[in-house]
Amino acid sequence: MRLATWNVNSLKARLERVEEWLEQVQPDVLCVQETKLGPGVFPSMALASLGYEAADHGEGRWNGVAILSKVGIEDVQTGFGVGSPLDDEARLVSAVCGGIRVFSAYVPNGRSPEDDHYRYKLEWLEALRVHLDRSFSPADPVVVAGDFNVAPDDRDVYDPAAFEGATHVTAPERDAVRALEDWGMVDVFRQHHEPGGLFSWWDYRAGSFHKGKGMRIDLVLATPVVAERATMSLIDRNARKGKSPSDHAPVIVDLADLT
DNA sequence: ATGGTCGTTGCACGA
Q: What pTM was estimated for this model as a whole?
């Protein structure tokens, strides 16, 4: 089973690139973030013609998450599901795909450590941890994949000195991701690659991509029963090249079939 | 060279 996550920065603007990528890479499951699509405009038909069923949780101009699957998509759930104001924005959707509870997550950006949005980001990550803890055991097959807007390690940014005091690298943000790992989640990409120089996001500005100025902020977190099935993972930086790319590249994980 | 580019129910703001 091939599972991937990709912040597409508008599924409307990116549909052609996404279709082309799906045909080439053939993931069984794709977690999508920043669809930026409101209700009723999700390109279900176009994706169905490529063999994908979809779970769409969008709100309009901003945010929006989705899951595409060729291996079934059952028991779709949106948000934290407890009437929390943290569900006001469309940032979380999950479904059971091929026997795994798969979440597509778009963690708030945070903007800057002084901004209210930064507090919102930390609250959102804590709500995610609580939601996992209340809903699952670390022994269950669970994946949380998405744009975490956190670089877990200094070596996950091109120049730690350039990020002094900036969001995405502060201790509270990293602690919030580590709390998910302490609960039982494994950073699957990190299983296969030593830290350093491998990024999933590059600013559109200033030729950052060509200068290698990126960050690894898109993660596939999996419970051990899933993570131990992972045979390969990579960041498809080719998808960041060419005409009208997203500013994020997809992260791909291959899972061995259950025997 | 201290910015630079994208996206959007855009003409300002979020990333």
A: 0.97
